[in-house]
């Protein structure tokens, strides 16, 4: 039997994840009090029914006694009930935005600041996060991207690194993305903007890609950046980082940065890491 504990920060997408797991054949139970979890797991273990995949949603509303909860699970583990912990996280800014959009109160504060509730919750859930088998940061994930991540883990059973990488192109004239972890300036590469027939096109067009990548300096940049990222990424994972935003910028975010972001994305997309690309300013410089 596959037994999955789905938990994480309130507002990070636990309910959405449970619905997605239900769609792929899991029997899902949400907000079961932690005191009943051991008994529920025992019933699942002893049941002769056809249920062989169970997902149990646990969050801060059910109980704060997570230490005792995991002790119960370890007892069951000795009785051949293997379990995985899926932890959903998100940045404070995104969580606050989601609470304001839905006009919900944080479960740990009554009439207080949402940030205070988030701070308290992070302290309580730190023990759980440290023991999670899978951590998904939903800060920049679309619903379909979260579904793809869950499919990788629970259907395709691919190796999962707990790190989601975003390759982001941008224009310096519009500001450096505030969520950047690494920023690379590619304004040293010849600019197709100054060639009249190339100016209206973007780095998504082959003619621009060919122009940008015909220079040795562009090819060397891609090779050296790939080499550095292959060194950095495993170390970020070891340090516990769950989200990595690699920002590549040129003047307007339309030609050079888009081309090179695409190249880096292609270089990393065959690895075990979860990765997406986003061109923030590609449509701004018309």
UniProtKB/TrEMBL annotation:
NCBIfam families documented for this protein: PRK05416.1
Stretches that traverse the bilayer: none
GO molecular-function terms, A-Z: ATP binding; GTP binding
Sites where the protein binds ATP: 8-15
Alphabetized Pfam families for the sequence: PapZ_C, RapZ-like_N
Annotated GTP binding sites: 59-62
Gene3D superfamilies to which the protein is assigned, alphabetical: P-loop containing nucleotide triphosphate hydrolases
Presence of keyword Nucleotide-binding: yes
Stretches assigned to the RapZ-like N-terminal domain: 1-155
HAMAP family: RapZ_like (MF_00636)
Organism listed in the record: Natranaerovirga hydrolytica
PANTHER family: RNASE ADAPTER PROTEIN RAPZ
Keywords assigned: ATP-binding, GTP-binding, Nucleotide-binding
RapZ C-terminal domain span: 165-283
Protein name (record): UPF0042 nucleotide-binding protein
